[in-house]
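Researcher: Batch entry, complex prediction.
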Amino acid sequence: MSTMGSTGSPLNDPAVARRAHRMMLAVLAVIGVLLVVRSYIGTTVGTGEAARNTHGFGMVYVERAEQGFVSERVTETGKDGVAVEVTKWKPVTPGQTPEISWTNWNETTGDAWATASMKDAAQSSIEVSWSRTVGVWAAALLTLCVFSFLWRDNPAYKLAESVVIGVSAGYWMVVALWDTMVPKLVGALAPAWTKANLMPSFDAVGVDWWALVPLGLGLLLLCRLSARASWLGVFPLAFIVGTFAGLKFVQYVEADLVAQVATMFDPLLVVKHQAALGADAATVAASPIDWAGSVGGSLAAILILVGVLSVLAYFFFSAEHKGALGRTAKVGVWYLMITFGASFGFTVMGRIALLAARFEFVFDDWLWLIDPAGKH
Amino acid sequence: MASNPHNSDARHGTFLSRLDSIDRRWIFLMMALAVAGPIIWVGITGKTFPETPTPAVQGAFDAIERLPEGSRVLVSFDFDPASAGELQPMATAIIHHCAMRKLRICGMTLWAPGGPLIGATFTDVIGNDPSYVYGVNFVDLGYQAGNEGVMKQVGTDFPRAFPSDARSTPFAQVPMLKDIHKLTDFDLLVSVSAGYPGSKEWIQYGVSPTMTGGKPLPFVAGATGVQTPQLIPYYPGQMAGVLGAIKGAAEYESLVNTKLRSMDSGKPIAPKFQEAQRRMAPQLVAHVLMVGLIVVGNVIYFAGRRKGAHV
Amino acid sequence: MSRTVAAIVASIAGLVMVLTAFVQPLGFLGSAVVDWFNVLAAIAFVLGGANLLKMNLMKISAREAGWGYSAVTLAAFLLTLAVGILKVGVHPDALHPNVAFSGDKEAVGAPFWWLYEYAMSPITSTLFALLAFYVASAAFRAFRAKNTAAILLLGTAFIVLLGRVYVGVLITSWIPADNAWVAWLRLENLSSIIMSVFNNAGTRAMMIGIAIGVAATSLKILVGLDRSYLGQGD
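Model: Structure tokens for the complex:
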């Protein structure tokens, strides 16, 4: 996205820039005042006797759930048929003292909190989760920072952009480490250690020395960070490209070429019988053939065949588009325009759905102005 | 001045030229109001529009309706929270429909952020229903890295691709997965996808190989608005049905809720099962705005061209 | 020499993948190659992260314009990496509570989950949502019915945009729905026909063309004719 400004706007004029700056501050001040007023008005949570007003919004309530475990020694028969004694862990039963325990906090509704508080004002099983509440506020403010780009490029947007770049890079690195490198590399080369310390459900069958191949290729890939040794990165790159090429070759030919061409061998003359369509006896007696459906089906099949052939003719650049080929290619262009028009319509639909979802988050989860799903 | 015959032309031209050079931020504001207004209206009134299912959506619905009770359905949640606005209502409606039909549901995902969405959807739809037991009636296999590699692997050796479920229970110890060895052991594959890897790859690696000889795997897809036109050629040859964008989700929800009403007359449908239908209101206003903007833009263009021809 | 060896590596890897599709007993080879591919892709993420670190550190040390934002990026990156790799705040798995790292890294409530749920996801979603505004602005400024092709495109867009919402049903509600000879003229049905006939034909033809292109390009890579992915060199 390039630097924005209104079309032809003389933002280089200091007087105009100052006025725009003051207007921005005024808008922010109005938004701030509205938020304070909203907070003061509050929201009623709970129903009936439990109803109470909370002077705030965007809060997340959580319910405490304690988990405790005790161990026991059991005898199991391993894969080699030898009986071994292993330690198994099971949830603690009432009366038992857990050896290991922790507290889970599960999201709940404001209504649940109001009801619990009505029964016992000092209860601590349902409370406001400040970390998640701060999270909702952070998400809302970051959303507004990104929306501010619609006005023009500004530090708030740049801040949000920097945050998402950093967090995304970190997120995907963590996913790559825990979901691929640990099971497929560390687990392959040190299966017992991985099972004991990182992934107890890992199937430790034995050391797979072939895992040294991708490890070696990966280290060569990391050489791209060095200017002198970057040429070594060409080998893992070649492996990636070759594998991808081989994978895609078969699947594209099978699913997108052969299967799609096979679909074209459908009858062009379609006859739909009323009986086969499940029509009642009177309709079948009056007219055994569904003429409208048959004409429609036949026309559709012909139009599809003409369309596919004419679009393929348009994309055939080995011969000049003149004469019969030219006229066919022109029909192909018309089909393509209709295709692009339909794609445009669906793309608009998709983007508006995403925008609607963001607004729903702002109005529902943050501002608590609406509650269509009864979440709070 | 008042009697000048060119006055109206000058005022007309000035108005159109002002409209033509309108700051695009006014258009942004119009779009914001077109989406925000209906959201607040629907949020307060709870009103939705009626939906008539299209053949592709009806096909998806019928594919699940045809399955006998106890059939096993593999649902791949190939999307992340960023696309959940369009796809979560689809996923919820599909799980809801499967639960109503008493089918056994197996959830999985090839998108790392999609893992938590499976559990959240099961909790939202099934909740604490005592007739639906984890491991017996539904299971969460979680996320598996590998994209098409996983799709190829489940075609021949499912347990190798997913050694355990999301709760670390070994595959063979999950009651409903005991005799699952490969993908075609499932009775239906459903993919709700936002991009790559998604429905297209499932067709290429999972469904197409089953079409030639043996048992073709029935497949239903749910896709975003951007992806839907690319999936249409696969219907109905390689797909039983497709839910396209939020409209497809709304149509499917409508079908499922109609069935629910017929089973449980008088009981109101929970708002969580009408999410897509609620989102159609902002779609309507925004679409009308888009059409209006295109029309006005062309009116300005042609008026300017005609004025240029007269000069 | 290195380019020749690299091209041979690419050919062998690709041919193994093709062979496993036709020779079932070689399926294990295909699985192994795919596993190696995934490990390499994961290491590529490490490469990307290291590059991000390097570029932003250089920007901060040189005090280039906007270095403050680089600092924010680095702080966010390192924080996410730390809480994710160390699984900070993640409870162990219920079946193995004695193994500290056995829990799901994206466990709800943990700091890594918090960063994804309240920082990464909302910003990414909002960036996508911004496109709705730009689509509206582009539609007003650029969509002109100048020729037949443009008229077809715009006309189709109108039918699809209106036919996919309730207003389309209302506009043509006067056309009888039970008369199959005219019911297809209703906007919602026209929209369906456009998708199932015209869009189907156009997309199918493009898919066939793309499949042929992918097959040709893949074959050129597999036989070593195309080495452009190796860059310039010996």
